[in-house]
Amino acid sequence: MDKSQNFSDASEDEDDKNSSTSRNINLGPSGNPHAKPTDFDFLKVIGKGSFGKVLLAKRKLDGKYYAIKVLQKRVILNRREVIYSEQKHIMAERNVLLKNVKHPFLVGLHYSFQTTDKLYFVLDFVNGGELFFHLQKERTFPEPRAKFYIAEMASALGYLHSLNIVYRDLKPENILLDFEGHIVLTDFGLCKEGISQAETTSTFCGTPEYLAPEVLRKQPYDNTVDWWCLGSVLYEMLFGLPPFYSRDTHEMYDNILHKPLMMRPGASNTAWSLLQALLEKDGTHRLGSRDDFNEIKAHNFFSAIKWDDLEQRKVPPPFTPNVVNVLKRKNLYCG
């Protein structure tokens, strides 16, 4: 029995069949006019991104596995009340993917194509699971392991900033581990392009637990919001919850805006120094506000990190995921 064919049939819902559009969308340099869905065996759904499904697929030509993000064109073209917002998110993601294909800690886009109904983005398949999954399983990470992940995240964010892109949605669910244990950032739907160190935006977006105070206040902000998010993720890895977390969203927002950062046992002095510098409520005084990634690298917390080796993937990861059969894995997600 052809399982991939059955899967493909099952993935078509009635809305998909009844809402086709023949209008093409500009996919830019990544567009491959010769590619088509039948080039792949679609094996399983491995996650959902900002605006579509992500499928594990095996290319028939060479047997290689890819994560393919599939987006319905009707989402972009037919729903007038959300067309501008959603198309902006989808095209921002595509644009960011195009710019980052060679960075070691950002998911790479191989190419894209389209049919009458759908857009397809052929991405790296990253099979070590979400950082969120591993953190939920272990509750906290030892400081050396957290330091390794944070250093690789900072490198990826610094690279995005060098392209005048603010990531804006750093969280454990958007961070994958590859089969060796290196991190890979995914899901660029909330990225904001064209933001240099001296420029700002004021869009209210992101994940509540990790929102910087200036975002909550709807004030203009810049790439320093990413360094706040980095501090929030580091805090969560060390202590099990984001720094100002509450089940009550309004209380959590109030905590982010007004509650001082509380010191907790179990972290080194340099870790606390970094957390205090990253989780500075005034973005103009936050670590990274003057010289961006260079300030992060220079902090004592990273004194043992050899950044050139790290960015060449020469530093051995402190943890290697147990990568099982790709068809059995449940915590996969790409793009």
From TrEMBL:
ATP binds at residue 69. InterPro entries: AGC-kinase_C (IPR000961), Kinase-like_dom_sf (IPR011009), Prot_kinase_dom (IPR000719), Protein_kinase_ATP_BS (IPR017441), Ser/Thr_kinase_AS (IPR008271). Residues 19-29 have a biased composition (Polar residues). Residues 1-33 are annotated as: Disordered. Its EC number is 2.7.11.1. Keywords: ATP-binding, Kinase, Nucleotide-binding, Phosphoprotein, Serine/threonine-protein kinase, Transferase. Residues 303-335 form the AGC-kinase C-terminal domain. It comes from the Eukaryota. It catalyses: L-seryl-[protein] + ATP = O-phospho-L-seryl-[protein] + ADP + H(+); L-threonyl-[protein] + ATP = O-phospho-L-threonyl-[protein] + ADP + H(+). One of its GO terms (molecular function) is protein serine/threonine kinase activity. It holds the Pfam family Pkinase. SUPFAM superfamilies: Protein kinase-like (PK-like). Residues 40-302 form the Protein kinase domain. Belongs to the protein kinase superfamily. AGC Ser/Thr protein kinase family. Protein kinase that may play an important role in cellular stress response. May be involved in the regulation of processes such as cell survival, neuronal excitability and renal sodium excretion. This is Serine/threonine-protein kinase Sgk1. It comes from Salmo trutta (Brown trout). The gene is SGK3.
